[in-house]
Amino acid sequence: MSKEELKQKLMDLRLDSRGVKEVLKKRLKNYYKKRKLLQAKTKVPVGTDVFYDYLLVIDFEATCQQFNPANFKYEIIEFPIVLINTMDLTIEDEFHFYCKPVLNPKLTPFCTELTGITQAMVDKSPTFPDVLMEVEAWMSKRKVESSNFAVITDGPWDMGRFMYTQCQISSLPIPKWAQKWINIRKSYSNFYGCPRSKLTVMLDNLGMEFAGQQHSGIDDSRNIARIVMRMLEDGCELRINEQLFRRKMPDRDAGDDAEVVPVSKTDAENNSALECDSEGGCAGIPIKLAEKSIQHHCEHTAESLMKAEQLRHSSPQSTVKEIISSTDHLAASVGKISLDNSSSQVGSHASDDDIDDLLEYYKLQK
Fold first, then answer.
1. Overall pTM surpassing 0.85 (yes/no)
2. Which candidate in 136, 215, 291, 300 is catalytic?
3. Quick one: three-class SS letters along 188-257?
């Protein structure tokens, strides 16, 4: 069907007809799926997916320069949270504080121009440890921590870089709720079958416009929340898909987004994603992670599984490259793999972007 035909069909069914072709197709497919279940007298999901009671959308703003040096220490200067109640798809509450930086207390003109945050705004604000205490108190008051909830971010950087680095600067353990999250870019791309895109493009694909000021943490969070609610209405099942990994990489600054690893939907639903220690780190996972991700994303034969298993037992320090290349079948399943010092590429046979994340991660560990 053409885009115009899809739009007309959705309008005939009194459904939202905004968005690009991929979005419209997914919306119509979800409608027919529910109708088919109803006709088969099978229990139809009521409304949207409610695996999580609450979703906390967080989009930090941090200190920055026009050209950040390699070892630049980012400090969080805006801490916004938009609380989504999945039962009725409403914004139930918001949390919003600015934070006073301590390592680089004077904001650069570039940072102010980008974020709209002025020197006066941060000078009169509490430091990060105090703001984090306010966050915990707010979550307790809203009874969020006693519910099933997840954090949502636009990419891996908010937790994998900003929160991670800020907690190190402040000598604080990373909160458990900040160690695992939903990367909405990844979920959006996988659900609608389109390339990973920035916030404004995701909105545009859904037929929406950005509301507010771009790079304002609270406005970004509100717009991400709009995307989240639209995805849930379209039938998306959002699950935690990333988490922190503390092990330091050679020539990498602490808090770099390379400290992030994927979490499978099965592990997220079973709450069996890798456990983190009190410092927000996970240890001893390279082979387990490779095994889980490869099994999740590739079509295995009994023979290839046996060979891969033999290699794991005979050489516990085997890299993901060795495991994958242990059989022609596994190598073919994930496509062309290059793990040299300059690139890491996965061919079109990969079922989604997690394999690419995994291989990039192991390239950095070599």
1. no
2. 215
3. HHHHHCCCCCCHHHHHHHCCCCCCCCCCCHHHHHHHHHHHHHHHHHCCCCCCCCEEECCCCCCCCCCCCH
